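Quick illustration for those who missed Monday's session on complexes.
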Amino acid sequence: MSNDTNPMEIVSKQIDAANEILQLPADEVACLKHPERTLEVNFPVIMDSGHMEVFTGYRCQHSTARGPAKGGLRFSPFVTPDEVKALASWMTFKCAVANIPFGGGKGGVIIDTKKVSEHELERITRRFTAEISCIIGPDRDIPAPDMYTNAKIMAWIMDTYSMGKGYAVPGVVTGKPIELGGSLGRTSATGRGVTITLQELLKLYKMDFSKTRVAVQGFGNVGLWTAKLIHSLGGKVVGISGFKSCAYNPDGLDIPKLEAWVAETNFIKGFPQAEVLSLEEVLSLDCDVLIPAATEAVITADNADKVKAKFIVEGANGPVTPAAETILTKKGVIIIPDILANAGGVIVSYFEWVQNNMPYYWEEDEVLNKLTRAMIKAFHDVDDIRSQYPGITYRQAAYVLALRRENTARRLRGCYP
Ligand code: GLU
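Prediction with glutamic acid bound:
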């Protein structure tokens, strides 16, 4: 993996870029670049065939300086220790930008969920949970959904952890089903946060929301909810990519119809109201805003010059590599970074955890109002820093804010012993 796409190299570069402004001493920067703890587990699971298979998983806690570690758990064949560590670091900075009292964590299991049965998936989840139970908990580290994990998987984690304790512990994970203490508004929260960020950005640049042409890369939870919310608010989603191809309509796509089509046929291909293009073409569509909402390192030095959008709003974690960002910034493209734009998910996870701890549950409008306020505040906190230091990017500004909050907490706590 080249330095431009190695996720821990990317984190290191992002910290250094913010430190050009902050000027933190080298020893403190070294602490920020190293996760506190990473647990690797190799565990056997009895498959439906009766044979045992060994799986590998990780849970990384980058920081617990501002509160318990918080962050998702992904099930993917491409999980690596460095990826989990980088994603945990981004969670620390995301929680700091959103100003919620958590540090950052992330977990992953190397698995292709399409190749295992439902029962196998449940046994893998339960055994992995048992393996990491020694470091997670509502006061220590709280997993949540990420790529290829969902509310059902969170319910299995909650149950497995609770069985070990002997009583129900809903606060050990977020993104649970509502019936088990999940929060209203959590499923759509990341996409809603991306949409709120987009609205604030367009207001700032005096652009008309209804006329702005948006392309979304990704048809998972974040991509689909973002597209649906933009569409429902009267916005124009001109393109969206799925797993194999991309739908394009310069007059705007009917997202609910496209969603129904994909639910029925599994593919974008054949959708009558759009031109069907190749998967990669979503990144170079003629549009004003591009929202990469799938995975890391999709916009690299190799394809950055093909991007036509004037704005990129990062729905995924780490979709633009530093080399791509240099090319795009030179072209005048404004990038709203992941640690700001996709913070809606973890913000509502925080609300879920608060409700679990009370335990008293809010109506959906209360959750959505609190989310909207938190996203708008985070956007303007970052924008204020950007105005203070002319010429810096939104990513640098977001990191200045995050590192300032994180490092202040570390200084106040001091170095034990
Ligand atoms: N996986 C999501 C993220 O990357 C949500 C994490 C959470 O809710 O803890 O932000």
